[in-house]
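Q: Can I see a sequence and its folded structure?
A: Here is a first one.
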Amino acid sequence: MEDSLNDKKTILLVEDNPDDEELTRLALTRSNIANEIIVAHDGAEALDFLLATGIHAARNIRMMPSVMLLDLKLPKVGGIEVLQRIRADERTRLLPVVVLTSSKEEQDIVTSYRFGANSYIRKPVNFEQFIDAVRQLGLYWLLINESPWQSIEFK
Protein backbone atom coordinates (compact mmCIF):
# COMPACT_ATOMS: atom_id res chain seq x y z
CA MET A 1 0.00 0.00 0.00
CA GLU A 2 1.13 3.53 -0.80
CA ASP A 3 2.70 5.49 2.06
CA SER A 4 0.17 8.02 3.25
CA LEU A 5 -0.72 10.40 6.04
CA ASN A 6 -2.96 7.58 7.24
CA ASP A 7 0.03 5.28 7.73
CA LYS A 8 1.92 8.07 9.53
CA LYS A 9 -0.97 8.96 11.88
CA THR A 10 -0.71 12.66 11.10
CA ILE A 11 -2.45 15.41 13.09
CA LEU A 12 -4.11 18.36 11.37
CA LEU A 13 -4.03 21.29 13.80
CA VAL A 14 -6.33 24.15 12.80
CA GLU A 15 -5.23 27.05 14.96
CA ASP A 16 -4.79 30.76 14.18
CA ASN A 17 -3.11 31.78 17.43
CA PRO A 18 0.70 31.28 17.21
CA ASP A 19 0.97 30.97 21.01
CA ASP A 20 -1.69 28.24 21.15
CA GLU A 21 -0.04 26.47 18.20
CA GLU A 22 3.30 26.50 20.01
CA LEU A 23 1.71 25.33 23.29
CA THR A 24 0.00 22.45 21.46
CA ARG A 25 3.27 21.44 19.79
CA LEU A 26 5.10 21.64 23.12
CA ALA A 27 2.39 19.62 24.87
CA LEU A 28 2.60 16.92 22.17
CA THR A 29 6.39 16.83 22.44
CA ARG A 30 6.30 16.63 26.24
CA SER A 31 3.80 13.79 25.93
CA ASN A 32 6.20 11.87 23.64
CA ILE A 33 3.83 12.20 20.69
CA ALA A 34 6.16 12.59 17.73
CA ASN A 35 3.56 12.36 14.97
CA GLU A 36 3.73 14.82 12.09
CA ILE A 37 1.64 17.94 12.67
CA ILE A 38 0.21 19.81 9.72
CA VAL A 39 -0.99 23.29 10.67
CA ALA A 40 -3.71 25.30 8.99
CA HIS A 41 -3.88 28.86 10.30
CA ASP A 42 -7.48 29.56 9.30
CA GLY A 43 -10.62 27.69 8.29
CA ALA A 44 -10.14 28.30 4.56
CA GLU A 45 -6.64 26.80 4.66
CA ALA A 46 -7.97 23.76 6.53
CA LEU A 47 -10.69 23.22 3.92
CA ASP A 48 -8.22 23.67 1.05
CA PHE A 49 -5.98 21.03 2.63
CA LEU A 50 -8.74 18.52 3.39
CA LEU A 51 -10.63 18.94 0.11
CA ALA A 52 -7.46 19.26 -2.03
CA THR A 53 -8.37 22.68 -3.41
CA GLY A 54 -6.59 26.03 -3.72
CA ILE A 55 -2.90 25.77 -2.87
CA HIS A 56 -3.42 22.08 -2.02
CA ALA A 57 -5.14 21.18 -5.32
CA ALA A 58 -2.33 18.77 -6.24
CA ARG A 59 -2.53 16.93 -2.89
CA ASN A 60 -3.59 13.30 -2.96
CA ILE A 61 -7.08 13.34 -1.41
CA ARG A 62 -6.56 9.77 -0.16
CA MET A 63 -3.94 11.06 2.27
CA MET A 64 -6.03 12.06 5.27
CA PRO A 65 -4.88 12.96 8.77
CA SER A 66 -5.78 10.59 11.60
CA VAL A 67 -7.38 13.39 13.59
CA MET A 68 -8.08 17.09 13.27
CA LEU A 69 -7.74 19.40 16.26
CA LEU A 70 -10.06 22.28 15.40
CA ASP A 71 -10.25 25.68 17.04
CA LEU A 72 -13.63 27.38 16.65
CA LYS A 73 -12.69 31.06 16.53
CA LEU A 74 -10.85 31.20 13.18
CA PRO A 75 -10.38 33.88 10.53
CA LYS A 76 -11.86 33.55 7.01
CA VAL A 77 -13.99 30.46 7.75
CA GLY A 78 -15.01 29.70 11.33
CA GLY A 79 -14.56 26.31 12.97
CA ILE A 80 -18.27 25.46 12.95
CA GLU A 81 -18.47 26.10 9.20
CA VAL A 82 -15.34 23.98 8.66
CA LEU A 83 -17.05 21.20 10.58
CA GLN A 84 -20.26 21.54 8.56
CA ARG A 85 -18.41 21.48 5.25
CA ILE A 86 -16.24 18.45 6.00
CA ARG A 87 -19.25 16.51 7.31
CA ALA A 88 -21.13 17.36 4.10
CA ASP A 89 -18.35 15.96 1.87
CA GLU A 90 -18.20 12.19 1.42
CA ARG A 91 -14.39 12.26 1.27
CA THR A 92 -13.97 13.89 4.69
CA ARG A 93 -17.18 12.91 6.48
CA LEU A 94 -15.47 10.26 8.64
CA LEU A 95 -12.47 12.35 9.71
CA PRO A 96 -12.26 12.36 13.52
CA VAL A 97 -12.58 15.96 14.72
CA VAL A 98 -11.68 17.14 18.19
CA VAL A 99 -12.78 20.69 18.88
CA LEU A 100 -9.95 22.16 20.96
CA THR A 101 -10.96 25.68 21.88
CA SER A 102 -10.90 28.28 24.60
CA SER A 103 -14.58 29.08 23.98
CA LYS A 104 -16.67 28.93 27.11
CA GLU A 105 -19.92 29.34 25.16
CA GLU A 106 -22.32 26.48 25.98
CA GLN A 107 -23.90 26.97 22.54
CA ASP A 108 -20.51 26.20 20.91
CA ILE A 109 -20.49 22.79 22.60
CA VAL A 110 -24.01 21.95 21.44
CA THR A 111 -23.42 23.28 17.92
CA SER A 112 -20.09 21.43 17.58
CA TYR A 113 -21.72 18.12 18.43
CA ARG A 114 -24.76 18.90 16.28
CA PHE A 115 -22.47 19.30 13.26
CA GLY A 116 -20.46 16.15 13.92
CA ALA A 117 -17.61 16.85 16.32
CA ASN A 118 -16.28 13.65 17.87
CA SER A 119 -15.09 15.42 21.00
CA TYR A 120 -15.10 18.91 22.53
CA ILE A 121 -12.29 20.00 24.80
CA ARG A 122 -11.97 23.40 26.39
CA LYS A 123 -8.32 24.44 26.47
CA PRO A 124 -7.21 24.45 30.09
CA VAL A 125 -5.61 27.68 31.26
CA ASN A 126 -3.06 25.79 33.37
CA PHE A 127 -0.20 24.51 31.18
CA GLU A 128 0.22 21.22 33.08
CA GLN A 129 -3.50 20.49 32.62
CA PHE A 130 -3.15 21.37 28.94
CA ILE A 131 -0.21 18.94 28.55
CA ASP A 132 -2.25 16.22 30.22
CA ALA A 133 -5.28 16.89 28.00
CA VAL A 134 -3.15 16.80 24.83
CA ARG A 135 -1.37 13.63 26.01
CA GLN A 136 -4.70 11.90 26.51
CA LEU A 137 -5.91 13.14 23.11
CA GLY A 138 -2.81 11.77 21.43
CA LEU A 139 -2.97 8.42 23.20
CA TYR A 140 -6.60 7.90 22.27
CA TRP A 141 -6.80 9.26 18.71
CA LEU A 142 -3.36 8.13 17.53
CA LEU A 143 -2.78 4.87 19.39
CA ILE A 144 -6.11 3.39 20.47
CA ASN A 145 -8.68 4.62 17.95
CA GLU A 146 -9.05 2.68 14.68
CA SER A 147 -9.07 4.91 11.61
CA PRO A 148 -11.67 4.38 8.86
CA TRP A 149 -9.30 5.49 6.08
CA GLN A 150 -7.82 2.06 5.31
CA SER A 151 -11.29 0.58 4.84
CA ILE A 152 -13.07 3.02 2.54
CA GLU A 153 -13.13 3.56 -1.19
CA PHE A 154 -12.44 7.06 -2.46
CA LYS A 155 -14.12 8.19 -5.63
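Q: Show me another, different protein.
A: A second, unrelated one:
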Amino acid sequence: MRLIAIWAFPSSRNFFEMRLITLLTDFGVQDEYVGVMKGVIAGINQDARIVDISHHILPRDIVHGAFILAAAYPYFPCGTIHVAVVDPGVGGMRRILAVETGGHLFVAPDNGLLERVLAHQSVTTAVSVVDPRFFLKHVSPTFHGRDIFAPVAAHLAAGLPLSELGPAVDRQTLVSGVVPRCRFSPDGCVEGMVVAVDRFGNLMTNIDAATIDGLNRRLAGKTVVVELAGKPIGGIVAFYDRVAEHAPLALIGSRGLLEISVNGGSARRILNAGRSDGVRVRPA
Protein backbone atom coordinates (compact mmCIF):
# COMPACT_ATOMS: atom_id res chain seq x y z
CA MET A 1 0.00 0.00 0.00
CA ARG A 2 2.86 2.38 0.71
CA LEU A 3 4.16 2.05 -2.84
CA ILE A 4 0.75 3.04 -4.18
CA ALA A 5 0.77 6.10 -1.95
CA ILE A 6 4.22 7.16 -3.23
CA TRP A 7 3.13 7.12 -6.85
CA ALA A 8 -0.17 8.77 -6.02
CA PHE A 9 1.61 11.85 -4.67
CA PRO A 10 4.45 12.74 -7.07
CA SER A 11 5.48 15.74 -5.01
CA SER A 12 6.83 13.53 -2.21
CA ARG A 13 10.57 13.09 -1.79
CA ASN A 14 10.26 9.32 -2.15
CA PHE A 15 8.85 9.76 -5.64
CA PHE A 16 11.93 11.66 -6.76
CA GLU A 17 14.24 9.09 -5.21
CA MET A 18 12.71 6.50 -7.54
CA ARG A 19 13.67 8.48 -10.64
CA LEU A 20 15.84 6.73 -13.16
CA ILE A 21 19.22 8.11 -14.19
CA THR A 22 20.55 7.12 -17.61
CA LEU A 23 24.16 7.43 -18.69
CA LEU A 24 25.44 7.99 -22.22
CA THR A 25 29.16 8.63 -22.73
CA ASP A 26 32.10 8.08 -25.04
CA PHE A 27 34.14 6.64 -22.15
CA GLY A 28 34.04 2.97 -23.14
CA VAL A 29 34.11 0.36 -20.39
CA GLN A 30 37.75 -0.67 -20.15
CA ASP A 31 38.65 2.16 -17.77
CA GLU A 32 37.17 3.15 -14.42
CA TYR A 33 35.31 6.22 -15.67
CA VAL A 34 31.78 4.84 -15.91
CA GLY A 35 32.03 2.82 -12.70
CA VAL A 36 33.27 5.84 -10.80
CA MET A 37 30.35 7.96 -12.04
CA LYS A 38 27.95 5.32 -10.76
CA GLY A 39 29.80 5.25 -7.43
CA VAL A 40 29.44 9.02 -7.07
CA ILE A 41 25.72 8.83 -7.77
CA ALA A 42 25.26 6.04 -5.22
CA GLY A 43 27.27 7.95 -2.63
CA ILE A 44 24.84 10.87 -2.85
CA ASN A 45 21.59 9.03 -3.48
CA GLN A 46 21.64 5.30 -2.76
CA ASP A 47 18.06 4.92 -3.99
CA ALA A 48 18.80 6.18 -7.49
CA ARG A 49 18.46 3.60 -10.25
CA ILE A 50 20.95 3.80 -13.12
CA VAL A 51 20.54 2.50 -16.67
CA ASP A 52 23.32 2.57 -19.26
CA ILE A 53 22.24 3.74 -22.71
CA SER A 54 25.70 3.43 -24.25
CA HIS A 55 29.33 4.05 -23.40
CA HIS A 56 30.54 3.30 -26.91
CA ILE A 57 29.81 6.61 -28.57
CA LEU A 58 32.77 7.29 -30.83
CA PRO A 59 35.38 9.33 -28.93
CA ARG A 60 34.58 13.05 -29.00
CA ASP A 61 31.84 12.44 -31.61
CA ILE A 62 29.06 14.84 -30.60
CA VAL A 63 26.97 14.01 -33.67
CA HIS A 64 26.99 10.28 -32.92
CA GLY A 65 26.02 10.97 -29.31
CA ALA A 66 23.24 13.35 -30.32
CA PHE A 67 21.58 10.79 -32.59
CA ILE A 68 21.82 7.90 -30.11
CA LEU A 69 20.53 10.01 -27.21
CA ALA A 70 17.55 11.23 -29.25
CA ALA A 71 16.77 7.67 -30.33
CA ALA A 72 16.87 6.28 -26.80
CA TYR A 73 15.36 8.76 -24.38
CA PRO A 74 11.65 8.55 -25.44
CA TYR A 75 11.53 4.93 -24.27
CA PHE A 76 12.20 5.87 -20.66
CA PRO A 77 9.49 7.01 -18.23
CA CYS A 78 8.77 10.68 -17.73
CA GLY A 79 10.93 12.13 -15.00
CA THR A 80 14.04 10.21 -16.08
CA ILE A 81 17.30 12.13 -15.76
CA HIS A 82 19.55 11.62 -18.77
CA VAL A 83 23.24 12.30 -18.22
CA ALA A 84 25.06 12.67 -21.54
CA VAL A 85 28.82 13.18 -21.52
CA VAL A 86 30.46 13.52 -24.91
CA ASP A 87 32.52 16.49 -23.98
CA PRO A 88 35.66 17.31 -25.98
CA GLY A 89 35.59 20.81 -24.48
CA VAL A 90 35.76 19.57 -20.88
CA GLY A 91 37.40 22.10 -18.57
CA GLY A 92 37.04 24.92 -21.09
CA MET A 93 34.52 27.70 -21.57
CA ARG A 94 31.58 25.54 -22.69
CA ARG A 95 28.55 25.57 -20.39
CA ILE A 96 27.03 22.61 -18.64
CA LEU A 97 23.25 22.54 -19.05
CA ALA A 98 20.39 21.08 -17.11
CA VAL A 99 17.28 21.05 -19.29
CA GLU A 100 13.71 19.94 -18.75
CA THR A 101 11.83 19.10 -21.93
CA GLY A 102 9.16 16.60 -22.92
CA GLY A 103 8.83 15.40 -19.33
CA HIS A 104 12.51 14.41 -19.14
CA LEU A 105 15.58 16.02 -17.57
CA PHE A 106 18.93 16.24 -19.34
CA VAL A 107 22.36 17.11 -17.98
CA ALA A 108 24.83 17.66 -20.80
CA PRO A 109 27.49 20.01 -22.13
CA ASP A 110 26.26 22.87 -24.29
CA ASN A 111 28.04 21.64 -27.40
CA GLY A 112 25.22 20.40 -29.64
CA LEU A 113 24.76 17.07 -27.86
CA LEU A 114 21.12 17.97 -27.07
CA GLU A 115 20.37 19.36 -30.51
CA ARG A 116 18.45 16.32 -31.78
CA VAL A 117 16.49 16.01 -28.53
CA LEU A 118 15.44 19.65 -28.66
CA ALA A 119 14.71 19.77 -32.39
CA HIS A 120 11.02 18.99 -31.92
CA GLN A 121 10.53 19.80 -28.25
CA SER A 122 9.73 22.99 -26.40
CA VAL A 123 12.08 23.63 -23.52
CA THR A 124 10.26 24.03 -20.21
CA THR A 125 13.34 25.02 -18.22
CA ALA A 126 17.04 25.34 -19.03
CA VAL A 127 19.73 26.42 -16.60
CA SER A 128 23.49 26.77 -16.61
CA VAL A 129 24.94 24.40 -14.00
CA VAL A 130 27.28 26.55 -11.93
CA ASP A 131 26.50 26.08 -8.22
CA PRO A 132 29.45 24.20 -6.66
CA ARG A 133 27.32 23.04 -3.71
CA PHE A 134 26.14 20.21 -5.95
CA PHE A 135 29.58 19.22 -7.30
CA LEU A 136 32.24 17.10 -5.67
CA LYS A 137 34.57 19.08 -3.44
CA HIS A 138 37.53 18.81 -5.81
CA VAL A 139 36.70 19.26 -9.50
CA SER A 140 39.17 17.89 -12.03
CA PRO A 141 39.48 19.91 -15.25
CA THR A 142 39.43 16.63 -17.22
CA PHE A 143 36.68 14.57 -15.55
CA HIS A 144 33.53 16.62 -15.14
CA GLY A 145 31.52 13.43 -15.66
CA ARG A 146 32.61 12.32 -12.20
CA ASP A 147 32.86 15.66 -10.44
CA ILE A 148 29.89 17.62 -11.85
CA PHE A 149 27.53 15.59 -14.08
CA ALA A 150 27.18 12.57 -11.77
CA PRO A 151 26.61 14.47 -8.50
CA VAL A 152 24.20 16.89 -10.14
CA ALA A 153 22.17 13.96 -11.49
CA ALA A 154 22.11 12.34 -8.06
CA HIS A 155 20.80 15.53 -6.45
CA LEU A 156 18.15 15.93 -9.16
CA ALA A 157 17.04 12.34 -8.57
CA ALA A 158 16.61 13.24 -4.90
CA GLY A 159 14.27 16.09 -5.79
CA LEU A 160 16.54 19.11 -6.29
CA PRO A 161 14.80 21.74 -8.49
CA LEU A 162 16.70 22.75 -11.61
CA SER A 163 16.55 26.37 -10.52
CA GLU A 164 18.96 25.59 -7.65
CA LEU A 165 21.74 24.66 -10.07
CA GLY A 166 22.25 28.06 -11.66
CA PRO A 167 20.75 30.87 -13.73
CA ALA A 168 18.15 30.34 -16.44
CA VAL A 169 19.40 30.06 -20.01
CA ASP A 170 17.61 31.35 -23.10
CA ARG A 171 17.09 28.49 -25.55
CA GLN A 172 18.15 30.75 -28.40
CA THR A 173 21.66 30.90 -26.91
CA LEU A 174 22.20 27.12 -26.88
CA VAL A 175 24.86 25.82 -29.23
CA SER A 176 23.28 24.66 -32.50
CA GLY A 177 24.25 23.81 -36.04
CA VAL A 178 26.60 21.03 -34.91
CA VAL A 179 24.38 18.14 -36.02
CA PRO A 180 23.99 18.00 -39.82
CA ARG A 181 20.45 18.02 -41.18
CA CYS A 182 19.11 16.56 -44.40
CA ARG A 183 17.67 18.93 -46.97
CA PHE A 184 15.70 19.12 -50.17
CA SER A 185 17.96 19.98 -53.09
CA PRO A 186 16.91 22.40 -55.85
CA ASP A 187 16.11 19.45 -58.14
CA GLY A 188 13.65 18.04 -55.59
CA CYS A 189 15.79 15.25 -54.17
CA VAL A 190 16.61 14.66 -50.50
CA GLU A 191 20.27 14.94 -49.56
CA GLY A 192 21.83 13.75 -46.33
CA MET A 193 24.74 11.74 -45.02
CA VAL A 194 25.79 8.76 -42.95
CA VAL A 195 26.07 9.88 -39.33
CA ALA A 196 26.83 6.60 -37.54
CA VAL A 197 27.56 2.92 -38.08
CA ASP A 198 26.17 0.31 -35.68
CA ARG A 199 27.86 -2.93 -34.60
CA PHE A 200 26.14 -4.82 -37.43
CA GLY A 201 27.67 -2.49 -39.99
CA ASN A 202 24.38 -0.74 -40.79
CA LEU A 203 24.79 2.85 -41.96
CA MET A 204 22.49 5.25 -40.09
CA THR A 205 21.70 8.46 -41.95
CA ASN A 206 20.31 11.83 -40.92
CA ILE A 207 17.34 11.43 -43.29
CA ASP A 208 14.21 10.83 -41.24
CA ALA A 209 10.99 9.04 -42.15
CA ALA A 210 8.99 12.29 -42.17
CA THR A 211 11.27 13.74 -44.84
CA ILE A 212 10.90 10.60 -46.96
CA ASP A 213 7.11 10.88 -46.57
CA GLY A 214 7.33 14.50 -47.72
CA LEU A 215 9.31 13.46 -50.77
CA ASN A 216 6.77 10.76 -51.60
CA ARG A 217 3.96 13.32 -51.42
CA ARG A 218 5.83 15.65 -53.74
CA LEU A 219 6.33 12.81 -56.20
CA ALA A 220 2.67 11.72 -55.99
CA GLY A 221 3.55 8.13 -55.21
CA LYS A 222 6.34 7.68 -57.75
CA THR A 223 9.08 5.25 -56.76
CA VAL A 224 12.22 6.62 -55.12
CA VAL A 225 15.72 5.20 -55.11
CA VAL A 226 18.61 5.70 -52.72
CA GLU A 227 22.20 6.50 -53.65
CA LEU A 228 25.20 6.17 -51.37
CA ALA A 229 28.25 8.24 -52.35
CA GLY A 230 26.83 8.40 -55.86
CA LYS A 231 26.28 4.63 -56.17
CA PRO A 232 22.75 3.20 -56.49
CA ILE A 233 21.41 1.13 -53.59
CA GLY A 234 17.83 0.61 -54.78
CA GLY A 235 14.39 1.50 -53.51
CA ILE A 236 13.33 1.68 -49.87
CA VAL A 237 12.09 -1.71 -48.65
CA ALA A 238 10.15 -2.68 -45.53
CA PHE A 239 12.58 -5.22 -44.06
CA TYR A 240 15.87 -7.02 -44.68
CA ASP A 241 14.82 -10.18 -46.49
CA ARG A 242 13.00 -8.25 -49.20
CA VAL A 243 16.34 -8.47 -51.02
CA ALA A 244 18.66 -11.41 -51.69
CA GLU A 245 21.21 -12.44 -49.08
CA HIS A 246 24.30 -10.20 -49.11
CA ALA A 247 22.52 -7.64 -51.31
CA PRO A 248 22.39 -3.96 -50.27
CA LEU A 249 19.15 -2.31 -49.27
CA ALA A 250 17.68 0.87 -47.80
CA LEU A 251 14.97 0.91 -45.16
CA ILE A 252 13.53 3.01 -42.35
CA GLY A 253 15.16 1.57 -39.22
CA SER A 254 13.88 1.37 -35.67
CA ARG A 255 15.11 4.91 -34.96
CA GLY A 256 12.82 6.35 -37.64
CA LEU A 257 15.81 7.15 -39.83
CA LEU A 258 16.84 5.92 -43.25
CA GLU A 259 19.46 3.19 -42.95
CA ILE A 260 21.57 1.49 -45.59
CA SER A 261 22.28 -2.15 -44.87
CA VAL A 262 23.30 -5.44 -46.41
CA ASN A 263 21.05 -8.44 -45.84
CA GLY A 264 23.11 -10.79 -43.70
CA GLY A 265 26.27 -8.71 -43.91
CA SER A 266 28.00 -5.45 -43.04
CA ALA A 267 27.22 -2.46 -45.23
CA ARG A 268 30.28 -0.71 -43.90
CA ARG A 269 32.57 -3.51 -45.08
CA ILE A 270 30.82 -4.68 -48.24
CA LEU A 271 30.01 -1.19 -49.54
CA ASN A 272 33.26 0.28 -48.20
CA ALA A 273 31.27 3.14 -46.69
CA GLY A 274 31.15 5.05 -43.46
CA ARG A 275 30.44 8.24 -41.60
CA SER A 276 30.02 11.44 -43.64
CA ASP A 277 29.41 9.61 -46.92
CA GLY A 278 26.71 11.38 -48.89
CA VAL A 279 23.23 9.88 -49.25
CA ARG A 280 20.66 10.94 -51.84
CA VAL A 281 17.02 9.92 -52.28
CA ARG A 282 15.66 10.73 -55.74
CA PRO A 283 12.90 9.71 -58.14
CA ALA A 284 13.56 6.38 -59.88
